[in-house]
Amino acid sequence: MRPILMKGHERPLTFLKYNREGDLLFSCAKDHTPTVWFADNGERLGTYRGHNGAVWSCDVSRDSMRLITGSADQTAKLWNVQNGSQLFTFSFDSPARSVDFSVGDKLAVITTDPFMEVLSAIHVKRIARDPADQSGESVLILRGHQGRINRAVWGPLNKTIISAGEDSIIRVWDSETGKLLKESDKESGHKKTITSLTMAADGSHFVTGSQDKSAKLWDSRTLTLLKTYVTERPVNAVAMSPLLDHVVLGGGQDASSVTMTDHRAGKFEAKFYDKILQEEIGGVKGHFGPINALAFNPDGKSFSSGGEDGYVRLHHFDPDYFNIKI
Amino acid sequence: MADVMIEEASARLGIDFSQVDLDSIHLPPGEDFGVISDDEDLYQDDHLELDTSLNNIIIVDNLPVVPREKFDKLEGVIRKIYGQIGLIKEDGFWMPVDPDTQKTLGYCFIEYNTPQEAELAKERTNGYKLDRSHIFAVNMFEEFDRFMQVPDEWAPPDVKPYTPGENLQQWLMDEKARDQFVIRSGTGTEVMCEVMWNDARQMKPDPVHRRAFWTESFLQWSPLGTYLATLHRQGAAVWGGASTFNRLCRYAHPQVELIDFSPGERYLVTYSSHAPSNPRDPKRIVINIFDVRLGKVMRDFKGSADDFAVGGPGGVTSVSWPVFKWAGGRDDKYFARIGKGIISVYETETFSLIDKKSIKVDNVIDFSWSPTDPILALFVPELGGGNQPARVSLVQIPSKEELRQKNLFSVSDCKMYWQSNGDYLAVKVERYTKTKKSTYTGFELFRIKERDIPIEVLELENKNDKIIAFAWEPKGHRFAVIHGDSPKPDVSFYTMKSGSSIGRVVKLTTLKGKQANALFWSPAGRMIILAGLKNFNGQLEFYNVDELETMATAEHFMATDIEWDPTGRYVATSVISDHGMENGFNIWSFHGKLLYKILKDHFYQYLWRPRPPSLLTPEKEEEIAKNLKKYSKKYEAEDQDVSMLLSEQEREKRKALKDEWNKWVTRWKQLYEEEKLDRQGLRDGETSDEEEVYEAKEVEVEELLDETQEVVEYDE
After folding, report:
1. Most A CBs within 10 Å, among B187, B560, B575, B664, to test the A interface
2. Which of A5, B34, B115, B354 holds its CA 20 to 30 A away from the CA of A49?
3. Which strands form B267-274's sheet, in the order they lie side by side?
4. Do residue A264 and residue B557 have CB atoms under 8 angstroms apart?
5. Which residues on chain A are in Cβ contact (under 8 Å) with B671?
6. Cis peptide bond N-terminal to A95, omega within 30
């Protein structure tokens, strides 16, 4: 089907997130306003005004009532999804990069960038049921990554936190004690910055994308490397179909090093891989510029991509897609 | 050095070291007072540029023995001689004096600032005649020990027992008749060189040997594929053998930059250039010619870059590689280099000039050898503003007899293309138009093997067309030309042999508007790839010249290099560039089917291993070509088997992967179930894990849309 082009952001997209029901799509961009869209027809529902810097990521609670966003303005904010009002602001002394609600939405993990003298860190915050009781205290602060932490998410049953970033190592932390439990193997792991990390719906496995032009699939409990998907481009975004055994990689080189000769030189395609056989199945073209964000609708029947070009493209799959055989 | 400091310090402090029992002094553990222990010292020395080396000192022997009075005069003379070559260090001159006779001992030491200067001084003045009885003998100080150790009595060298070497041509005996290639990738500490089989049937490469840091700059096969050459700071090395690549020989040549094998791979030419001590001087160039098997220097050439520069049309003075061009054929008999107005032809029996002199050809700027015969083709440009025409001539070696000559008028440039069997020579001639403002191109075609070497002139139909590429069909009689304007040029094919008019060049066809800028004939002829490299994004057209039809068009995006395998069965297209995009190579069949692709970051070299020429006689080859069906049956059956096996394996592999995956998924599902209660707990007892479990509630909504009041008349 023809993709729906959603123009609402003025700057490159950074993150996309569907709510649990898959009827809302939240988008973050380097302009300062996260936006919510109807995931079916791409109609814009509203924006969340209040950040004063690029917004790097967001997460929405299970009941679709709360939104949390992390921004370069050194804050993470809690929002009321319905009316767009700010509920709480967590302040840090460096930009907030990644945010993720735990199972049950009682905790959130927020990563902060290294900035001036400040080292990168992973903060765990308690999320109060009533915004009036919300405190900015960190339950736990984890340090140990070299450079930026691009993504930190909760492991199964909130027992662990899985983080990855510029030092190309995936780390698994105990979310109670803050102890480092596991690190990915240097030999088999990524060779360059890990740009993205997406957890499967049931939390059993996750996929990471890296500038080393590959994406890797890992077991969340054991941190065993299961699969590797190799492509020609640095990978900026990864997503997994909840319905079929497909993995989608998005990427392209940095906007600064894109050659002007041919649109293919940048290869700004979302590439589909067979999750099990690790083979490329196909690609979806469209963006003019690298793809920065990818998300699958929880029903697996559509996905959206956000590009450096400032557009969100909403793709509903044709019926053929569900019959791909290789 | 440390000793001196201690002595100085002790003298200053008034300590007599002979009275001190050093063993009685104990340092506190872990304390070294900043003095590094000897071992560490050594370790550090390894890392530092060794400044104490003596390779910048020379010894000049056979000086006159003079008394005290004449010492200064002699010193003046020597300083004058050696000061010209390089800067003598302060206190860098020492001429010892015999304490008994107060006369000099007839030798002196000179220390330069750099080893290069010392080397140069040795080279230039060894054998210098000061007068009849004083001929200098100059040696490097470092070599002195070595010379001193030469025993006075001659002893016969130990005869080493003969150890049979490996079969260096083992790779040709591959049962599947595959070809090898070598690739180099990676930067810095991760340089990786890999030799692989091109296993086209299995659609993947089959590794043979891999090695990190195999070379410090590049790799090169010898022309017949026997050796793989690597370059290092100390020199070059060749590798080969039956299965693993063992080092066969080393060739010492410090800072070697370029190498070149003779066509029969008996000799290896190595080249290095060294920065001069005076930046205004030209670079110093050292060229060694080694015997590949013995590892022995057969001849060396040293001199300034000017000596090796070739006078181009505009008096261009740069060294073009290879400096020495080898005559064709496998016997490696002659090699030649061009100088100012001369061509120096050497022969390899004595490594000296033929007839002890070079061939004088005024203003010659280019020459080339026939690929098969000892025939030289020379080009002399126009002189005297057009009074003396430009000239192409063919010279037979060693007789130096001129076989054929052709004068050409108003020529701006010439380029020579030999057909691989040496049957034909095409000379591309750029001529000025009458106004002298622009140029147009024509070809002079020499038929070398025919009597009197007839020459034919070929001009393109549109004379103004630019020639973008020209290529002879290997072993054949056809050639292809890309001509026209750059975005969509035409490609034309010509033949030197046509049925009707023997001895006339005939055009076969012209393909209009092709996106091509390079031509790659299959080494077996017949097939050609019209390629649009670099700016043309890697367009490939596989063309059959026998049938004059396109077999396939394809694209290897951004391709920069194309190389046919030596048999003409497969083609490798590669993206070799430093912008880091798309790097890697694709392997195609000769008819343009993509077999497999490999991506490699920092991909620098792709080289097929060459094969020596076939041992079959032409008659036998013809016979095989005629009865190809009979011969190919066996291979087709093999192919069939392999492809069956392959699909079988593929199926099995997929099944295994699926099974493995399903195992994980089952495990995950199980764990997910086990954790169900915990998860509920985390969600404050909310049970639904999955979306499907909806709570259906019926809600009745009543909405009042409109309310109107109407008075209805009541009729009774």
Report:
1. B664
2. A5
3. B258-261, B267-274, B284-291, B297-304
4. yes
5. 156, 204, 221
6. no
Burial group, residue A247, by CB count within 10 angstroms (0-12, 13-18, 19+): buried
Here the ipTM equals 0.83
Q: How far is B704 from chain A (nearest CA, A)?
A: 27
CA distance A126 to chain B (A): 13
B664 touches chain A (CB under 8 A): yes
* Cβ atoms of residues B196 and B204 within 8 Å: no
How near does any CA of chain B get to the CA of A116, in Å? 31
- Helix residue spans in chain A (DSSP H): 263-266
Nearest to B657 among A213, A276, A298 (CB): A276
Q: How far is CA A325 from CA A43, A316, B594, B656, B660, in A?
A: 33, 19, 22, 17, 19
Q: How many CB atoms lie within 10 A of CB B247?
A: 11
Tokens of B247: 């080092």
Q: Which residue has the higher pLDDT, B415 or B314?
A: B415
Q: Is B219:B607 a contact under the CB 8 Å cutoff?
A: yes
Among candidate residues B206, B319, B195, B76, the one with its CA nearest the CA of residue B605:
B195
B229-283: per-residue pLDDT in tens? 999 988 899 998 877 888 888 999 988 999 999 998 899 999 988 877 677 777 7
For A122-137, the pLDDT digits (tens) are 999 999 888 888 888 8
B664, A202: Cβ pair inside 8 Å?
no
**What are the DSSP calls for B63-97, one per residue?**
PPP-BHHHHHHHHHHHHHHHHTTSPEEEEEEE--B
Is the CB of residue B657 less than 8 Å away from at least one CB of chain A? yes
Question: Does B661 contact A at CB distance below 8 Å?
Answer: yes
User: DSSP secondary structure string, B179-205?
Assistant: -EEEEEE--GGG-EEEEEEEETTTTEE
**pTM, two decimal places:** 0.67
pLDDT digits (tens, 9 = 90+) for A43-59: 999 999 999 999 999 99
- Given strand B204-212, what is the order of strands in its sheet? B204-212, B192-199, B180-185, B603-608
pLDDT in tens, B183-202: 998 887 778 899 999 988 88
Distance CA B465, CA B482 (A): 9
Q: Helix/strand/coil (H, E, C) string of A230-290?
A: ECCCCEEEEEECCCCCEEEEEECCCHHHCCCCCHHHHCCCEEEEECCCCCEEEEECCCCCC
**Which residues lie below 8 Å from residue A126, measured CB to CB, with a gap of 6+?**
A106, A107, A135, A137, A139
Using a CB–CB cutoff of 8 Å, tell me whether A236 touches chain B.
no
